[in-house]
Amino acid sequence: MDELYKLLHEFERKLAKLRRDGSLTTNAPQLFKEFSAEVERRTGPDRRAVPRDGEDRRQKPPDHQPG
Prior knowledge:
By secondary structure, this protein is an all-alpha fold. The chain contains two helices and no strands.
């Protein structure tokens, strides 16, 4: 958990820098994607039924069609 706290702190620091530089709106989405990818890499995949991005990544069983 310490590792994730450090990662969050780094993310907040980078957001503050973007805000100071005036490029928050342009660069924040990419920064968030990088941050969330790193969190997922360290903790495992998102286990929500439907993640915030709206893409349903649950594994679905193959369609079983008799005969």
